[in-house]
Amino acid sequence: MHELSIAMSIVEMAEEESLRLGGGQIAAVHLKVGALSGVVTAALLSSYGLACENTVLAGSALVIEEVPVVVHCPRCDARRAVQSIQCFCCAECGEPAADVLEGRELLVTALEIR
Amino acid sequence: MSHEPRLVEVRRNVLKQNDIAARALRERFRAAGVFVTSVVSSPGSGKTALFERTLTLLRPRHRVAALVGDLATDNDAARLARSQAPVRQITTGTLCHLDAAMVERALEPWDLETLDILLIENVGNLVCPSSYDLGEDLRLVLISVTEGEDKPLKYPTIFNSADVAVVTKMDLAEAVEFDAAALGRNIQAVRPGMPVLHLSSKTGAGMDEYLAFLEARRAQSCAGTAEAAPSVPLRA
């Protein structure tokens, strides 16, 4: 359960960005969460409200975009989805594929500022 | 009067602070020639027993030390001190994982130049440690034969983040009807190509192969550093 400390990092980061952008009320934070980031989105959402208390982010929304795993398939020599997070095989041809191109990210991508 | 919110694009890695600290640690380890292996597993998979054995066996040949993470006690450090190797405990309080800053603080009293190999034992947890780079060269994930062969499917993220899987408590394999082939298939499903080692810290079976693996990876890592040296000049 490390989502609270992640939520606090997000709040800190958003506060810094808001200051850099000249202040203003933050209405929402947009976040990309990879399927391999190790973050449970439900736990993150419930921690977020708590982390926002008494900050300029109080009352703001956390908008999460979940990013699926994308691998490089050695047989197709192309970017491919995996069959599932329990099966790192190319969704097209079934070849095992360990080279992860996307799905580890944990990124603040945008802020909605009033 | 209310304004429509405006959308401002930013692109910031939430774990950037940890990643920066981990990168700095990795550079320090490389510069000092220290090979760093971290270990993650469930509570009770045998991390401390494996560390005790590893430290004892490596000590005659290398200058080894260990950092051990624990939520509340320093029992593990006391146990590992029997190996005579330098050991420091990181007590995380309520935190469920180690991060790079904790490792950095714990290393303060040590001169890295006096070490060849550093082992880092993470807090027993198969979820949270996967997100935090500690600057290690090699990440081991331990799974004991008593845990169930489907564990990699239940915790794919941590298995995917590791470099090698070590199956522990092999002395109990027969009693619990452990199915090595099934576990192997499940590990390969979540991390194709990951090496899998089997051992018993209690009887010592499999320890030679495991130590040889560590030594080989250490040699590779040292060779890699030497090759990389001209392109990555280290500042004094």
Written overview of the protein:
The complex is a heterodimer of chains A (114) and B (236). With 114 residues, chain A is α+β, with helices and mostly antiparallel strands. Chain A is built from 2 helices and 7 strands; from the N terminus they run H-E-H-E-E-E-E-E-E. Chain A has one domain (3-113): hypothetical protein PF0899 fold. Chain A has helices spanning 3-20, 41-52; strands spanning 26-34, 61-67, 70-73, 78-84, 87-90, 100-102, 106-113. In chain A, the strands form 2 sheets. Chain A has a 4-stranded antiparallel β-sheet, with no helix packed on it. A 3-stranded mixed β-sheet of chain A has the order 2-1-7, covered by helices on one side. In chain A, helix 1 (3-20) packs across helix 2. The longest helix of chain A is centred in the N-terminal third of the chain and has 18 residues, at 3-20. Chain B has a 7-stranded parallel β-sheet, sandwiched between helices. Chain B has one domain (16-222): P-loop containing nucleotide triphosphate hydrolases (Rossmann fold). Chain B is 36% helix and 19% strand. In chain B, strand 3 (64-70), helix 3 and strand 4 form a beta-alpha-beta unit. Chain A binds chain B through residues 1-2, 5-6, 9-10, 13, 17, 21, 27-28, 30-31, 35-40, 85-89, 96-98, 100, 105-114, and chain B through 2-15, 17, 95-97, 127-128, 130-131, 153, 156-158, 160-161, 188-194.
Summarize the structure.
The complex is a heterodimer of chains A (114) and B (236). Chain A is of the alpha+beta class.
Count of distinct strands of chain A: 7
Uncertain parts of chain A: none
Q: Name the shape of chain A in a single word.
A: elongated
Number of helices of chain A: 2
SSE pattern of chain B, N- to C-terminal:
EHEHEHEHEEHHEHEH
Number of domains of chain B: 1
CATH topology-level name of chain B: Rossmann fold
Q: Give the strand order of the largest sheet of chain B, numbering strands 1, 2, ... along the chain.
A: 4-3-5-2-6-7-8
Tell me the domain tally of chain A.
1
Helix proportion range of chain A:
25-40%
Q: What's the CATH H-level superfamily name of chain B?
A: P-loop containing nucleotide triphosphate hydrolases
Please write the CATH class name of chain A.
Alpha Beta
Report the average pLDDT across residues of chain B.
90
Major beta-sheet overview of chain A: 4 strands, antiparallel
Query: What percent of residues of chain B are in strands?
Result: 15-25%
- Greatest interface and its participating residue counts: A-B, 38 and 35 residues
